[in-house]
Amino acid sequence: MLPFAEKNVLLGICGSIAAYKACxxxxxxxxxxxxxxxxxxxxxxxxxxxAALEALTGTPxxxxxxxxxxxxxxxxxxxxxxxxxxxxxxATANILAKAACGIADDWLSTTLLATRxxxxxxxxxxxxxxxxxxxxxxxxxxxxxxxxxxxxxxxRLACGTEGLGxxxxxxxxxxxxxxxxxxxxxxxxxxxxxxxGPNHEPIDPxxxxxxxxxxxxxxxxxxxxxxxxxxxxxxxxxxxxxxxSGVKTTQVNTADEMYDAVLxxxxxxxxxxxxxxxxxxxxxxxxxxxxxxxxxRIVLHLKPNRDIIAAVAGAKRPGQRVVGFAAExxxxxxxxxxxxxxxxxxxxxxxxxGGEACAIGADHADAYVLxxxxxxxxxxxxxxxHLARTIFDRLLALD
Length: 399
Prior knowledge:
Number of helices: 13
Structural class: alpha/beta
Strand order of the largest sheet: 12-11-8-13-16-17-18-19
Radius of gyration: 24 Å
Oligomer: single chain
CATH topology of the largest domain: Rossmann fold
């Protein structure tokens, strides 16, 4: 299922120079299953053409308050009632001030008052405008009323200054929108630690041994935990994908670094999920200088790395849940069941690797969910987001 399937999103676009990015945002929301209603403020109409947004979303763009009498389904009350999320991106200092003060003098500000859907603001403005006490006070008022914020990011602004004020990256806005539109906060108050990505074990200063893990599974788990209200920490190797915005992230390279990072903080978390493809072996004595070409053969002596998830499960406190992953090319269920018992895990996810159905680096997986005392649950060709949702559903049932 697409992340925003059967969801109605109102995208309010204000008169920031970043308004042009709303076209990509609208397109991405549509790709991910949302029905998107775009509303342009008077200032935004000077920066973005309605025709472009209409082509991207397939819906009429809202630009004025009163001509909508001929199109009642685009009226502010109709849109406010059907919206599952109101996303204002970019959000200017002006719209934040209006919303904080309850001013309703155009279509967008009126709809923000009328809706009971979650509201997410993505601010974009000059640094001095953003940091001004009035703007910060308005943001604090809106937060207290339940509104969510993503960004702004820091960097070079259109006015030539450096600092806070850039519109958050589109992937970060989409993650925040996904969390805002899904309101089942059944892990609120829980703290979840996730390991993710591969390890790079050095051969010499420029070479390493590793694996094909992308970090997609760890990212899906982190996003699902955030959506369900958890506080999330991630310890990740050099993955191909970035963690979701809002995750406390620790970057590591080797399995030893990951082991030390996990064991040092595990007591702070209620749930620990070992989704990283931890390197089973490391070079016994990495070279301090670059190995030169010329030898007919080079022999690498390997030794086992410590088993992170087994160490965590062996040291867990009462009430703590530990979830592992098993990646196998053969005897998948047999080997996974052995690891489940041997490591005393609360759950293990068995993934087949190798061949066309390899889960490592892919967007889908043929997986089994194994829990002590229960029959294995098979998920065929499941997206990693669906697998993440299933894992948290089963964890909730364990409690």
